[in-house]
Amino acid sequence: MSFQVFGIPVSRGVAIGRAVLVASSRLDVAHYFITESQIESEIKRALRARDEVALELETLKQDLPGDTPHELAALLDVHLMLLHDEALLGATKHWIVERHYNAEWALSAQLEVLARQFDEMEDDYLRERKADLEQVVERILSALAREQGKSPTDAASVVQRDFAGEDPLLLVAADIAPADMMQFKRSVFHGFITDIGGKTSHTAIVARSMDIPAVVGTREASRLIRQDDWIIIDGDAGTVIVNPSPIMLEEYRFRQRQSELERARLARLRHTPAVTLDGERVELHANIELPSDAAAAVEAGATGVGLFRSEFLFMNRGGELPGEDEQFLAYRAAVEAMRGMPVTIRTVDVGADKPLDRLSVSELRHEHVLNPAMGLRAIRWSLAEPSMFRQQLRAIYRASAFGKVRLLIPMVAHLNEVRQILESIKKVQQQLNDAGHAYGLVALGVMIEIPAAAVMLPLLLKHVDFVSIGTNDLIQYTLAIDRADEAVAHLYDPWHPAVLQLLAGSISQARSAGKSVSVCGEMAGDPAFTDLLLAMGLRSFSMHPSQIPSVKQRILRADAGRLSRAVTAVLQSEDPQREAEQAFAAQRSKQVLQ
Ligand code: PEP
Ligand code: MG
User: Fold this and answer.
1) pLDDT tens digits for 309-334?
2) Which pLDDT does position 186 carry in this prediction?
3) CB within 8 Å of 140: residues ≥ 6 apart
4) Region 25-36: what's the mean pLDDT?
5) Cross-strand bridge partners of residue 283
6) Nearest CA to ligand 1 atom 4
7) Ligand 1, from 447, 517, 542: best to mutate by most atoms within 8 Å of Cβ?
8) Contacts from 491-497 at CB under 8 Å and sequence distance 24+?
9) Residue with the nearest Cα to atom 1 of ligand 1?
10) Counting CB atoms within 10 angstroms of each CB, which of 145, 220, 270, 387 has the fewest?
11) Is the pLDDT of residue 384 over 50?
């Protein structure tokens, strides 16, 4: 039966393929394709792991002390029965043979199928056996991991292998932590859907950086969609069509081809400088998460990196943070890849929906801190960990000997924070001098993400060289909307008059102070806001490399001087979006007439 699921569109385009349901807790299981010749040995691996678990359970049963309650032995029998049931290993073989999934992936795919069947059982006792099945699968996965000499939570094992399979695969999960999304950058999936999340949640941001269609905040896609269903992800509309009719499929295949043609057309603008019709030059910088993303930035025609989210180097390391040398090598790699263009490295911005260890947003909501977005995150955390902070500063400064580096501080709200940062920088420079390390001139910038920083900008500007406006958080904190919470996603409004006033005020104050200002939040990469930001006087945008071509196209067709005439009316309007759309359309048509 065909049906649709609605969510929040976060990454454009159309993807058509088969659903791969992955439980959030199983996202770190290796997902890769094996070759035809590996099928037999992969099945043997799965069977060996099963036999090992069978032995484990039999031994446990035999070793039970005489006074053990009878229920425990019965439970072990249930586990043994589940282990030997054809529905588990027999069907796992199917995924290996038909789909070329590796054993771990095949096993978790089958777990999803069976778990669904358990959920639908009427009988309470039988329904509760799902937990037993999960424990059995967990044991088999551990046996497989032991055989490979690594733990089952080795996220780095998600790799892409060549496979001549015809059907693209689309990931369906209740939730995906940002760090897990990073693993999927190198994975086999062509699109993804989650139940949880908002447009500027970090999971969505990483999806956009991968440039694959994605829909989040569907609330129940992972419950309604079944393993292997055919699905269409419409990343523009935020809809997911499950088991589409042939006519529907044809229509979406046509749209897919159209958007590929459009991408190819836009890619030709790569070497065209971003200059408006009235001669205003605009910097189009890239947002990157890892040094390896710098290549895509250069390829897309970025003129620098406006935001290197260094926190992704710190995530999922089991509490161990990257040392100074490791960080230095990463920053140097990005700097060298940008070939003399500026690289803006943001100091670690962990916390809120970017935890250091692998916790999904839904887990975070129930963990540790009541209000993580307002807690010890970003610069607050760095200042609370001075030696970690100085270590990062040293690594960033050392990288500046190899190219143009700018230092960006997230979540600044107090002048005192800026003073402490300046002191740390002085100390670090002294340490580098003493150790004989070379470093260059590093401009210091702060992010404007908290309304307080926007309101007191003239005071901050006296102490820093540049500012970068993080609209994702600025909107979150101005409107008191959790950016990762789909329940309030409809209230997350970049067109809100208060947001626009803070944005326009920050751009104009920075410009009047002669300091450079850019926007590196998601608004910068959305062509729907390009005219508005140009009109407000913004001349430096930072976004994911994949978004550069369409923003550049809008810039090439804009007359910044004309657009700016509409700003006052937009800021004073009760419906700024409508006012802006009408005013900017009118400016463009005058342009055409002249
Ligand atoms: C922002 O808040 O707009 C921003 C760019 O930072 P992040 O999305 O990483 O919080
Ligand atoms: Mg931010």
Assistant:
1) 999 999 877 778 899 999 999 999 99
2) 66
3) 46, 49, 50, 53, 83, 107
4) 79
5) 540
6) 470
7) 447
8) 492/198, 492/199, 492/200, 494/523, 494/529, 495/576, 495/577, 495/580, 497/571, 497/573, 497/574, 497/576
9) 470
10) 387
11) yes
Which bound ligand lies closest to the C-alpha atom of 348? 1
CA-309 nearest atom, ligand 1 = 9
Question: Is 544 an active-site residue?
Answer: no
Positive or negative torsion for Cα 116, 185, 304, 457: positive
Beta pairing partners, 309: 346
Residue pLDDT, tens place only, 423-473? 999 999 999 999 999 999 999 999 999 999 999 999 999 999 999 999 999
Would you list the DSSP string of 504-555? HHHHHHHHHTT-EEEE-SGGGG-GGGHHHHHHTT--EEEE-GGGHHHHHHHH
Token pair 């939570």 in the structure block, residue: 153
Residue 593 clears pLDDT 70, i.e. is over it: no
How many angstroms separate the CA atoms of 94 and 103, rounded?
Answer: 11
Mutate to test the pocket of ligand 1, among 203, 288, 377, 449 (most ligand atoms within 8 A of CB): 449
Q: Which residue has the tokens 């809120």?
A: 352
Return the beta strands (E) in 85-139 as ranges.
Answer: none
Ligand 1 neighbourhood includes 354 CB (under 6 angstroms): no
Instruction: Look at the chain and count its residues.
Output: 594
Ligand 1 within 6 A of CB of 311? no
152 has a pLDDT exceeding 60: no
Indicate the residue type of 51. D
Point out the ligand 1 atom lying closest to the alpha carbon of residue 287. Answer: 5
470 Cα: distance to centroid of ligand 2 (angstroms): 5
Q: Does residue 190 carry a catalytic annotation?
A: no
